[in-house]
Design brief:
Oligomer: single chain
Strand order of the largest sheet: 1-2
Shape: elongated
Largest sheet: 2 strands, antiparallel
Order of helices and strands: HHEEHHHHHHHHHH
Helix content: 55-70%
Distance between the termini: 66 Å
Strand content: under 5%
Number of helices: 12
Structural class: mainly alpha
Length: about 210
């Protein structure tokens, strides 16, 4: 079991047991003497070990979250913090799974993502809608560079990050509303009432009279 875990540390206890017992050399003379009717074959057990996915590696898992949610490389302190959140579980598979979920949730709820990637999604949704069953209003090829644009130079907790983020958002919004897709969807011939109502409807928001 120790050899198998050294080869594949991502395995749970149940997976190690099953892998060892399902890869024995079945021998007639051992029938009835062991549960499997055979002897261990560690070479076969290692060869037939369920392959680990890259995402099972805490370092890769955390690194991908920085790239996918925040569109940047991790800062050293943050990287170590989130990796430790997962590795502190040791080989407790249930604990690891829960911590991985919590880490993903933390990235989604982070100030940095809410004001960058999630903001990009909401801007596209307000502009183009997302009726049930329809394609998402923004493609990945649009989402990634737009998020990077808003996030450029922003690391929450670093000096001046709030102003840098505000400037980036203003610049992005100014460029967004002059894109061909936006100007063709909302020609200047639209009345202000129709324009505002369309944006609120797409965002699935019912405004107050004052807001409208």
């Amino acid at each position: 079991a120790a050899l198998l875990w050294a080869h594949a540390p991502h395995l749970t206890t149940a997976q190690v047991k099953a892998t060892l017992m399902n890869n024995v050399d079945v021998l007639p003379q051992w029938a009835g003497l062991t549960v499997t009717g055979g002897r261990l074959n560690l070479e076969r057990a290692v060869q037939n070990t369920p392959a680990a996915h890259q995402l099972d590696n805490p370092e890769f898992f955390v690194h991908r979250h920085y790239l996918d949610f925040l569109s940047r490389e991790p800062d050293p302190a943050g990287r170590l913090f989130w990796i430790n959140e997962i590795t502190q579980c040791g080989l407790d598979a249930g604990c690891v799974e829960l911590k991985r979920i919590n880490v993903s949730a933390a990235f989604f709820l982070s100030i940095e993502f809410q004001h960058t990637g999630y903001l990009v999604y909401r801007i596209y949704k307000s502009a183009y809608g997302n009726p049930q069953g329809a394609p998402l209003p923004v493609t990945f090829d649009e989402f990634q560079p737009d998020t990077q644009q808003i996030n450029q130079g922003v690391v929450v907790s670093e000096s001046g990050w709030e102003q840098r983020l505000a400037d980036n958002k203003d610049r992005f919004a100014a460029l967004f509303v002059v894109t061909p897709r936006f100007t063709s969807t909302y020609p200047t011939t639209m009345t202000p009432e129709s324009f505002v109502d369309a944006l609120f409807a797409n965002a699935n928001v019912t405004p107050s009279t004052v807001e409208r």
